[in-house]
């Protein structure tokens, strides 16, 4: 397969619409499939087991279209009214009556949740018990990847059993074996007709951002930054507008706004960070649709490339270290930067914000998105002026590929117990 075709295939798999934070949505999706198997909503109880990373990201984030947070209400909603055929938009058709039923199920403690002892980043195991019927569904590796299902003890699907080694059920994408410069050059060669589907995410995420700018939702980070731009306290420049736009979208999404966002590598906030700085750039400077589509593609692919090393869910903030890096690459390219400058921007941003941890999805994520965008733009500006962090400064290696591998060591080896500490702190605050 040509590299260009591999890039297009990866984009179509990893860049998809999602309504709500993807961790509670994955739980809702599994619960929806469990209900569909037994075709019964008269719950005795539902046991939900999730990986530590899914638990961390789902504990305190808003679940559309409710005013509730957490995995419990997400599971109940998915079971009562979700449609698994909609994938990550499983909660799109939930009605008010179903929300009230779901709230009662949570209140009556019919939704039981526990952390599964697993090294998997994305793992959801749902076991539903109704009158005279039961079902079980497992999602693994990706938020919408069903690997096991059964009804009344009869196996329907078992991807795990069909693999000689459970760990090998995750198919490796050969795209990530290429050098980043080869990938950028390949995207430049792709015809506009083949890449213009990237613009759907441009308009989708812009709509969410405008909702956050116009209404004070979540923490109101983007709303407040924009208010201060209008007052003249902040300048109405590219960086200020990009920060406000991206943070506003996160404000709205983390508060549970029922609008789809274009996700990136399984994360809606990653999708916002990957796309909205490019939207902001296009509002300040004239850019053709062809260049916009290719810049967005670069941003998504770099996000996916880095997350292949640190994990789809990680102890590190993906919005900063992966999606922010993608945005830095796209901005550098839009500004006319060479491959040398693009690689420099990657080194600059990873030298800047590689230590930001992910302490779960929540309204406060808007702050991290704002920081990531500022760092991305700064990294691009410095790189274009040939101000690049030298080799040997901390994590920065001779090549960008080795720098990303250093980031992997930091995340997967150096910080392997950090998630446990974060979850312990979060449980003290949110779980009685």
UniProtKB/TrEMBL annotation:
GO terms for molecular function: L-cysteine desulfhydrase activity. Residues 154-423 form the Serine dehydratase-like alpha subunit domain. Pfam families: SDH_alpha. One of its GO terms (biological process) is L-cysteine catabolic process to pyruvate. InterPro entries: Ser_deHydtase-like_asu, UPF0597. Belongs to the UPF0597 family. This is UPF0597 protein F8154_12800.
């Amino acid at each position: 397969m040509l590299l260009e075709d591999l890039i297009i295939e990866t984009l179509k798999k990893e860049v998809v619409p999602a309504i709500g934070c993807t961790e509670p949505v994955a739980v809702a999706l599994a619960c929806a499939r469990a209900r569909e198997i037994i075709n019964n909503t008269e719950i005795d109880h539902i046991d939900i087991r999730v990986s530590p990373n899914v638990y961390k990201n789902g504990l305190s984030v808003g679940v559309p279209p409710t005013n509730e947070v957490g995995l419990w209400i997400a599971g109940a909603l998915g079971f009562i009214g979700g449609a698994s055929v909609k994938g990550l938009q499983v909660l799109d058709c939930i009605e008010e009556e179903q929300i009230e039923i779901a709230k009662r199920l949570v209140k009556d403690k019919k939704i039981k949740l526990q952390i599964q002892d697993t090294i998997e980043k994305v793992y959801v195991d749902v076991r539903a018990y109704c009158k005279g019927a039961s079902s079980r569904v497992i999602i693994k590796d990706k938020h919408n990847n069903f690997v096991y299902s059964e009804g009344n003890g009869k196996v329907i699907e078992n991807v795990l059993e069909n693999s000689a080694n459970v760990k090998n059920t995750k198919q490796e994408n050969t795209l990530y074996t290429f050098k980043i410069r080869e990938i950028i050059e390949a995207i430049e060669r792709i015809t506009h007709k083949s890449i213009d589907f990237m613009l759907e995410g441009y308009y989708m995420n812009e709509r969410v951002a405008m909702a956050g700018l116009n209404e004070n939702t979540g923490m109101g980070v983007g709303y407040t930054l924009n208010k201060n731009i209008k007052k003249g306290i902040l300048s109405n420049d590219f960086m200020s507008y990009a920060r406000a736009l991206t943070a506003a979208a996160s404000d709205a999404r983390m508060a549970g706004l029922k609008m789809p966002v274009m996700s990136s590598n399984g994360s809606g906030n990653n999708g916002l960070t990957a796309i909205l700085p490019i939207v902001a750039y296009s509002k300040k400077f004239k850019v053709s649709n062809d260049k916009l589509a290719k810049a967005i593609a670069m941003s998504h692919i770099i996000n996916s490339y880095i997350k292949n090393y640190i994990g789809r869910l990680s102890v590190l903030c993906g919005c900063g270290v992966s999606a922010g890096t993608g945005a830095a690459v796209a901005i550098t390219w839009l500004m006319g930067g060479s491959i040398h400058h693009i690689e420099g921007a990657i080194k600059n941003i990873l030298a800047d914000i590689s230590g930001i941890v992910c302490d779960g999805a929540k309204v406060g994520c808007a702050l991290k998105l704002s920081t990531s965008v500022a760092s991305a733009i700064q990294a691009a500006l410095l790189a274009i002026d040939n101000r690049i962090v030298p080799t040997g400064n901390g994590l920065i290696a001779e090549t960008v590929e080795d720098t990303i591998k250093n980031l992997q060591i930091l995340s997967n080896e150096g910080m392997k117990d950090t998630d446990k500490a974060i979850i312990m702190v979060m449980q003290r605050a949110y779980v009685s």
